[in-house]
From TrEMBL:
Alphabetically ordered keywords of this record: ATP-binding, Nucleotide-binding, Transport
GO terms, molecular function: ATP binding; ATP hydrolysis activity
CDD domains named in the record: ABC_Mj1267_LivG_branched
Claim: Transport is one of the keywords in the record: yes
Gene Ontology terms: cellular component: plasma membrane
Gene3D superfamilies noted in UniProt: P-loop containing nucleotide triphosphate hydrolases (3.40.50.300)
SUPFAM superfamilies: P-loop containing nucleoside triphosphate hydrolases (SSF52540)
Name used for this protein in its record: ABC-type branched-chain amino acid transport systems, ATPase component
UniProt domain ABC transporter: residue ranges: 18-249
UniProt-listed InterPro entries: AAA+_ATPase (IPR003593), ABC_AA/LPS_Transport (IPR051120), ABC_transporter-like_ATP-bd (IPR003439), BCA_ABC_TP_C (IPR032823), P-loop_NTPase (IPR027417)
Length: 252
């Protein structure tokens, strides 16, 4: 049996890269994500913010195939991808990083990337592609080093190289900047911007507000599973409901 691409439900030429319509995720009686809608275009960076437990990670997982939405619709280039498994999403052009980096410790840096390159390439072409990914993230000089020896900042870059090796059109970044020192943060910010400039659509969850505000073209703030604010970084940062969500309500 041959596997076919999901059926187009919108005009694939004009549809945004990613669209979510009324996505809901329920764990038993808890509604972790309440009917969230959003859209991401090519080359655009969407930042997801919100206090702890707001539902950011659950939404992120629901959009990237790691949690099945209870209700709602997710489309990628106009095709229905609701509940589609991550490996199938990777073939369509969707990749993600993980909050906790999980390199194959016994493999070299380039071998770690090579594993992902085999999705699209074989043999020498795969090796060349893996080296190109290391050049993009600034790890080419570490190619033969065991991954276990990399410090945190370089592990994050390796994580990014592995995601890029899948040649994504859409990239989900899960807290790739938190925990880095300021120079490493600045380098990662530059790198993420350069990926968007290449046309990759990016959805990022990040706790460092300043990073989200610097990088994002568009920001969504969640609280208690709901979207409470959306717009430019400046709009969301000055929205009283966002300030209240972060500071808590003295009247409660
Ligand atoms: N697998 C699960 N089973 C049950 N409840 C869950 C599960 N995953 C998340 N939750 C709950 O869903 C709610 C939203 O959690 P989520 O991790 O998505 O929030 P978050 O905004 O990413 O928080 P943080 O910033 O602390 O990571 C929380 O109440 C959490 O306890």
């Amino acid at each position: 049996m041959t596997t076919t691409a999901p059926h187009p439900i919108q005009d694939t030429a004009t549809a945004p890269l990613l669209r979510a319509e009324n996505v809901r995720v329920q764990f038993g009686g808890l509604v972790a994500v309440k009917d969230i809608s959003l859209a991401v275009k090519s080359g655009e960076i969407l930042g997801l913010i919100g206090p702890n437990g707001a539902g950011k990670t659950t939404l992120f997982n629901a959009l990237s195939g790691f949690v099945k939405p209870t209700a709602g619709l997710v489309t990628f280039q106009g095709r229905n991808i609701t509940g589609v498994e991550p490996d199938r999403l990777a073939r369509l052009g969707i990749a993600r990083t993980f909050q906790v980096e999980r390199p194959f410790e016994d493999l070299s840096v380039i071998e770690n990337v090579l594993v992902a390159c085999f999705l699209h390439h074989r043999g020498r072409k795969a090796q060349e592609h893996a080296f190109e990914m290391l050049e993009i993230v600034g790890l080419a000089d570490r190619a033969l080093q065991p991954a276990a020896e990399l410090n945190l900042a370089r592990r994050r870059r390796l994580e990014l190289a592995k995601a890029l090796a899948l040649e994504p059109k859409l990239l989900f970044l899960d807290e790739v900047i938190a925990g880095l020192n300021p120079p490493a943060q600045a380098e990662m910010i530059g790198l993420i911007r350069s990926l968007a400039d290449r046309g990759i659509g990016i959805v990022m969850v990040e706790h460092i507000m300043q990073v989200i505000m610097t990088l994002s073209d568009h920001v969504i703030c969640m609280a208690f599973g709901e979207k409470i604010s959306e717009g430019t970084p400046a709009h969301v940062a000055s929205d009283p409901s966002v300030i209240k969500a972060y500071l808590g309500d003295d009247d409660d």
